[in-house]
Design goal:
By secondary structure, the chain is an alpha/beta fold. It has helices spanning about 35-50, 65, 95-110; strands at about 1-10, 15-20, 25-30, 50-55, 60, 70-75, 115-120, 125-140. The longest helix is centred in the last third of the chain and has 17 residues, at about 95-110. The protein is globular.
Length: about 150
């Protein structure tokens, strides 16, 4: 999930661990069966997602084009399934070791594109603060349709 933001930051135990100005706040989850191809597709999609406005007021610019930042927050709860009962099941989420490796790979690929990338902290309770622009929030999934 990607949100267009004016600014965003992540605080862990009172310490700011990641902060950006204008750009994308990305909540990134890894699912069972996600592959290296999914990771590459996700990083490309995030970098090129045209949700920033141009001079004509149209959403036609990417975070790369505006020179914005990307704050990537690991978020396994995106895979919470509540179709049965009221407590989410997380069986569709990737195991932590795989999820962390894929999360770090997305961050690395975004940085390779020259983007300013800040991160949350994997397996931590995070206080995510943002000033959302729009609001514009886009759900991106490399393998599923909704």
């Amino acid at each position: 999930m990607a949100q267009r933001v004016f600014e965003a930051e992540v605080v862990v135990e009172g310490e700011v661990v990641g902060r950006i100005g204008r750009g994308l706040l990305v909540y990134l989850g890894a699912g069972q069966g996600d592959s290296d191809g999914d990771v590459e597709q996700m990083s490309g999609k995030l970098a090129g997602l045209r949700i920033f406005v141009d001079e004509a007021g149209k959403m036609s610019r990417s975070v790369e084009e505006i020179g914005g930042g990307v704050l990537v927050v690991p978020q396994f709860t995106l895979f919470g399934d509540v179709r049965k009962g009221r407590r989410p099941s997380f069986t569709d989420a990737a195991p932590p070791e795989q999820a962390e490796a894929q999360y770090l790979r997305v961050v690395s690929l975004l940085r390779e594109r020259g983007l300013e990338v800040a991160t949350g902290r994997f397996r931590s309770t995070m206080d995510v603060r943002s000033r959302v622009d729009g609001p514009v929030t886009i759900l991106i999934d490399t393998r599923r349709t909704f």
